[in-house]
Design brief:
globular, single chain, 8 helices, five-stranded antiparallel beta sheet, 3 domains
């Protein structure tokens, strides 16, 4: 690996990690020596890259540091295009169009020698799966998730029974052939997953739920580490 590429990769590792990381760990990932990493870190600091830390304790890249846009490696280009292909075939129309625009922007912006990686990638996603037409505005739903606002759902379960409940939306999950709304359900007083095609109607409320969205999401993620004796009732 050229030294210039290695310096760039060190910044990428620090940016991605977000917590102190030792020279040993960086050296192992980049397949070089710890002494080389020490020298490279010193070089980056001399170039005013805001890296905090020291040998033996770990290094952190301070917030606010930016690099020229789209300094992408070939693998990063292919990863971005593969993800955008998947979104273009499965997300709501606004996100799908944004994904297609992203591929076009990558192809237009990267050096010409890398353009085929965006326009003719080696990796492909499966064809779009068929899903019933949405009865809920998924674009507006995403906006409510970002805003941390409640909504009231009319939900039909697998037995055809319909219930009404007010929920605190956390995320939209994309599985192989279905999409789920993950939310805290006031009726069940717990996290529930609602298949979006079974939501027959929704009222978007102006009321914000009482927890920060990040804290609610952290609680939801914590449920994955807890024992689950049975599936909860939707």
């Amino acid at each position: 690996m050229r030294r210039a590429d290695r310096l760039f990769q060190i910044i990428q590792v620090l940016r991605r990690t977000g917590r102190p990381i030792t020279a040993d760990a960086i050296a192992a990932e980049l397949e070089t020596s710890k002494r080389t990493i020490y020298r490279d870190i010193a070089t980056l600091m001399a170039q005013r890259v805001p890296i905090r830390g020291e040998a033996g304790t770990g290094y952190v890249l301070e917030r606010g540091f930016d690099m020229p846009p789209l300094m992408l490696t070939p693998d990063e280009i292919e990863a971005a295009v593969l993800g955008a292909q998947w979104v273009a075939g499965r997300a709501d129309p606004v996100l799908a169009n944004a994904a297609r625009d992203l591929i076009a922007k990558i192809a237009y912006t990267v050096p010409e020698r890398l353009r085929p990686l965006a326009l003719e990638p080696a990796s492909r996603t499966p064809p779009k799966f068929d899903v019933p037409d949405d009865r809920i505005d998924v674009v507006r739903l995403r906006g409510h998730i970002h805003a941390g606002k409640k909504l009231t759902l009319h939900y039909r379960d697998e037995r055809g029974q319909t219930t009404e409940r007010t929920v605190w939306p956390v995320a939209i999950g994309y599985l192989d052939t279905v999409r789920h709304l993950v939310a805290w359900c006031e009726l069940r007083e717990g996290f529930r997953s609602f298949r979006i095609e079974r939501i027959t109607d929704a009222t978007f409320l102006d009321e914000k739920y009482p927890e920060r969205r990040a804290a609610l999401r952290a609680k939801w993620m914590k449920t994955f580490t807890q024992p689950r004796p049975h599936e909860p009732t939707p």
